[in-house]
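Priority: medium. Attachment 1 of 2:
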């Protein structure tokens, strides 16, 4: 009997022999289903490993890329809070780096122009770099110049030759999604001007561990990043990190500022402070990643007990938010329809479909009053306050909200 070869680290190429957490077989977390698609649904191993050499946490390469990227329906501008976040970013970067009509700003994975539109409004020259033609079309309609291409070193050299080197390059929630980290990060070194700045936003691995946010792990997210590892990625490409900010987005993110090695930007105290916190948590050694799977299993046990107790008491359970993280959570916990009778979601594109794996109907929140569930589990826990405010009417029939991460709590 032959065994499959051990997977290798996507960054340093050493064998991956240490499992961080095994979440079992799971469908693609963003692939909601029509009723006629149930028989063709596929599941893949969802295993996150940690490299003993560079300590990069990453999921196994178990899904063909065309399965992940065949259909991309996420438009950033549908989230008002995310557009507001982008506006604050624009204001802060313009003030800090004295950007003007003479500046050039680019964004990698620029989506529908949600961020660059704010720079356009200031008269700053911009370029979006976006691989999905359908969302790039929306950016062009918003008067945001956009090139449809995958970003890497070769694309960056070509863009710099045509448009010049950039004063600022933004990359929000994309560093974790690109499997070839060396070519991708190398592109920023090619595109930046001598004193240019690249900013990268990504969910912080320290929060994923401390708050047991295992539901943010899914096949489309290749990497789970610490500052310590990101500094290695930057250094390998000839860049250095000179500042880092902590953000509340996505359950707690970092915004890393990087520049060329010889640039004038002086390191801030925040870099050393977060580096120290990660070291204190053990993220600079393999032992710091041990025991996580046991903590994740306890979350599953607690939620399954809540569901069983509720059903035994004759209570009904629904959920809110057909988010990818919720699908990872439900599939790992083995919760399906009719354990949960419905998932309510504001996005019309999701309504009328079934959640992946669990096959729970996704409905318009306006229909919640007809079911009057006793419990509503808020699957996107990172926006729990927003959800509780927007559907506060469940108190009329005695309904209560539930959060399941980092432990099951009835609110």
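Attachment 2 of 2:
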């Amino acid at each position: 009997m032959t065994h499959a070869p051990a997977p290798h680290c996507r960054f340093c190429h050493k064998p991956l022999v240490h499992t961080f957490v095994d979440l079992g077989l799971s469908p693609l977390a963003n692939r909601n289903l029509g009723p006629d698609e149930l028989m063709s649904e596929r599941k893949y191993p969802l295993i996150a490993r940690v490299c003993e050499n560079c300590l990069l946490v990453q999921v196994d390469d178990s899904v063909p890329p065309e399965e992940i990227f065949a259909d991309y329906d996420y438009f950033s501008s549908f989230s008002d809070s995310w557009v507001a976040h982008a506006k604050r970013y624009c204001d802060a970067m313009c003030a800090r780096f004295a950007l003007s009509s003479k500046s050039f700003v680019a964004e990698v994975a620029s989506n529908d122009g949600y961020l660059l539109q704010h720079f356009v409004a200031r008269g700053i020259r911009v370029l979006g770099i976006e691989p999905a033609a359908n969302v790039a079309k929306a950016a062009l309609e918003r008067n945001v110049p956009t090139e449809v291409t995958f970003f890497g070193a070769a694309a960056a050299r070509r863009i710099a030759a045509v448009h010049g080197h950039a004063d600022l390059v933004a990359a929000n929630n994309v560093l974790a999604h690109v499997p070839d980290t060396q070519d991708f990060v190398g592109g920023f070194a090619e595109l930046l001007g001598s004193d240019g700045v690249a900013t990268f936003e990504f969910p912080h691995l320290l929060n994923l561990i401390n708050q047991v946010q295992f539901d943010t792990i899914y096949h489309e997210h290749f990497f789970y990043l610490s500052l310590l590892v990101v500094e290695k990625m930057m250094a390998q490409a000839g860049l250095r990190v000179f500042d880092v900010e902590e953000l509340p987005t996505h359950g707690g993110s970092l915004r890393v500022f990087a520049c060329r090695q010889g640039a004038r930007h002086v390191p801030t105290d925040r870099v050393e402070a977060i580096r120290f916190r990660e070291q204190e948590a053990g993220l600079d050694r393999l032992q710091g990643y041990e025991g996580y799977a046991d903590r994740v299993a306890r979350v599953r046990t607690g939620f399954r007990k809540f569901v069983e107790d509720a059903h035994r008491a004759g209570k009904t359970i629904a959920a809110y938010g057909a988010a990818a993280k919720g699908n990872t959570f439900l599939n790992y916990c083995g919760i399906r329809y009719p354990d949960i009778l419905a998932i309510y979601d504001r996005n019309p594109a999701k309504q009328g479909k079934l959640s992946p794996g669990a096959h729970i109907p996704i409905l318009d929140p306006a229909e919640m009053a007809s079911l009057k569930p006793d419990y509503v589990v808020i699957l996107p826990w990172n926006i729990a306050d927003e959800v509780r405010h927007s559907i506060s009417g469940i108190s009329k029939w005695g309904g209560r909200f539930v959060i399941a991460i980092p432990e099951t709590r009835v609110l």
